[in-house]
Design brief:
- The protein is α/β, with parallel strands linked by helices.
- The protein has one domain: Rossmann fold, CATH 3.40.50.
- The protein has 5 helices and 7 strands; from the N terminus they run βαβαβαβαβαββ.
- Helix 4 links the parallel strand 4 and strand 5.
């Protein structure tokens, strides 16, 4: 059975990712997101199948780069522990390092650009688009920005 890692930031990105939970039963799955009070329930619901990264936001200009660097090392540790065949993500900054690590070590990368963006690229989308094995957009208008992407429709 393929090992599939599902990773996203907290909030709307996690909400989008959890729309894919019907896939969990089809794979040896593992979840990764940021540790916030709202996400702690995942550890109980999906016992042994969840890891957390440090919550960070670009709004905190000075501390964010440090958290991002630490999350890169945590991501490497999680990747080595899980060794996924496929990484599926709905973004954003939390997923970027994991996608890069996964690509280096041979995992397939599936990136689903957030439905919140109708006319602009996300920072992580710009990065991962260059090497993703499958890049999915939720708005047809986004195909102009990501011409090699596949239109998948809304995740909800």
């Amino acid at each position: 059975m393929k090992k599939v890692m599902f990773i996203s930031s907290t909030g709307g990105h996690l909400s989008e990712m959890m729309q894919l939970k019907s896939l969990f039963s089809k794979y040896n799955y593992y979840l990764v997101t940021e540790k916030t009070p709202d996400n702690l329930y995942l550890k109980d619901k999906y016992k042994g199948k969840v890891s957390y990264l440090i919550y960070g936001t670009k709004d905190h200009f000075w501390i964010y780069p440090l958290k991002l660097i630490v999350n890169c090392f945590i991501s490497l540790f999680i990747y080595i522990k899980v060794r996924p065949d496929v990484i599926i993500t709905t973004g954003t900054h939390t997923a970027g390092p994991m996608c890069c690590i996964g690509k280096i070590f041979g995992s397939k990368i599936i990136f689903i650009e957030t439905m919140a963006n109708i006319a602009t690229k996300t920072v992580t989308g710009r990065l991962v688009y260059k090497f993703a094995d499958l890049f999915i957009v939720q708005w047809e208008s986004m195909l102009k920005l990501y011409p090699k992407a596949k239109y998948g429709g809304w995740i909800y």
